[in-house]
């Protein structure tokens, strides 16, 4: 059994505020149509891709334009269809909603799924996974839907996840640590809980972290040294996240105070939410993984690579459910999925290490 919760929003006429769509306007269908027009460059092709008639698609657009009082599509004869600034803003709004809320709703769906299954006779005990949100983690959860293994997922920041594992609140904790000069300082944060004799680390992926900027880098951001510029609006990650820790380490190396960054207190929960925030024009720069930048059409300035691990108690590796999960992690299908993501490497995916093997002796 799988529970899915997806964000859906509506627009009401000014002053109404009753939560009903504009005159019954189907916002979800409209947004899907606009996104298809953006991708195909023609409303006729967009309609075909969605399985609706050309007439129905145009009727939907015209109804929305009448209610907004502004054009959504410019369809000149012989030159295809282009979106108006309003239509593009609606699409970005939808992508930002999805980027910010989907991880939270996935966590809630997993909790509901577990509670429902517990009420069923002989329901299997799910593996409890608390993890920093990442694209390889999301792909793992998707592939788990095809197997009988039940997983209770909760997205939370890296430090919170590892602390929860130490308290027995989860079976696996997902966290990430930079490779290279910051590895020792970053790993020490987690080794407070991860004693070598008690825990093992399962290698999930290597990925690139870097700066997100608008397409073409119009502000000419060159690197971390530029983050203190007055003309740059920064969007951050919350306290406790691995990327926030990495940002602080980078600033310290370059002699920058967090207070020097315009927007330091502005935070988004995930890499995708940071990318959506910048893509919508609300910030100029942020830190995150390359996959998010690619999916939102941003320019990516690479800074360093990091490793993402699942921490697990050593004795838990012998549980049948854990063995099934490890088999999936090491499967060619999952490795291929991870390797296909921009900025991800899967050569070591599924490998089990001791804490000392991963980070050296303390």
TrEMBL record:
Species name: Aquariibacter lacus
InterPro entries recorded: LysR_HTH_N, PBP_domain, WH-like_DNA-bd_sf, WH_DNA-bd_sf
Pfam family, one: PBP_like
Domain HTH lysR-type: 30-86
GO molecular function per UniProt: DNA-binding transcription factor activity
Every PBP domain range: 150-329
Domain of life where this protein originates: Bacteria
Name by which UniProt lists this protein: Helix-turn-helix transcriptional regulator
């Amino acid at each position: 059994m799988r529970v899915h919760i997806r964000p859906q929003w509506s627009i009401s006429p000014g002053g109404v505020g009753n939560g009903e769509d504009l005159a019954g306007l189907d916002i979800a269908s409209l947004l899907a149509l606009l996104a298809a027009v953006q991708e195909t460059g023609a409303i006729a092709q967009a309609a075909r891709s969605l399985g609706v008639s050309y007439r129905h698609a145009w009727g939907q657009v015209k109804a929305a334009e009448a209610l907004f009082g502004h054009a959504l599509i410019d369809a000149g004869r012989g030159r295809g269809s282009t979106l108006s600034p309003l239509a593009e803003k609606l699409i970005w709004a939808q992508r930002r909603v999805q980027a910010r809320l989907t991880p939270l709703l996935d966590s809630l769906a997993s909790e509901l799924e577990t509670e429902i299954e517990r009420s069923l006779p002989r329901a299997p005990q799910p593996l409890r996974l608390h993890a920093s949100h990442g694209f390889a983690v999301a792909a793992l959860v998707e592939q788990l839907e095809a197997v009988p293994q039940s997983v209770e997922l909760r997205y939370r920041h890296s430090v919170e996840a590892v602390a929860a594992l130490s308290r027995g609140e989860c079976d696996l904790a997902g966290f990430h640590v930079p490779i290279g000069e910051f590895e020792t300082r970053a790993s020490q944060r987690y080794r407070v809980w991860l004693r070598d004799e008690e825990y093992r680390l399962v290698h999930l992926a290597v990925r690139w972290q870097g700066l997100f900027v608008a397409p073409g880098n119009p502000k000419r951001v060159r690197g971390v040294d530029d983050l203190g510029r007055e003309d740059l609006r920064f969007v951050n990650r919350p306290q406790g996240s691995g990327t926030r820790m990495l940002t602080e380490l980078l600033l310290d190396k370059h002699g920058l105070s967090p207070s020097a960054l315009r927007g330091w207190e502005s935070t988004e929960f995930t890499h995708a939410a940071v990318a959506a925030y910048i893509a919508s024009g609300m910030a100029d720069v942020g830190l995150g993984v390359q996959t998010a930048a690619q999916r939102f059409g941003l320019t990516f300035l690479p800074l360093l690579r990091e490793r993402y691990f699942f921490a697990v108690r050593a004795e838990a590796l012998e549980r049948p459910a854990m063995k099934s999960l490890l088999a999936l992690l090491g499967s060619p299908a999952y490795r291929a999925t991870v390797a296909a993501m921009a900025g991800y490497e899967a050569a070591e995916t599924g490998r089990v290490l001791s804490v000392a093997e991963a980070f050296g002796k303390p």
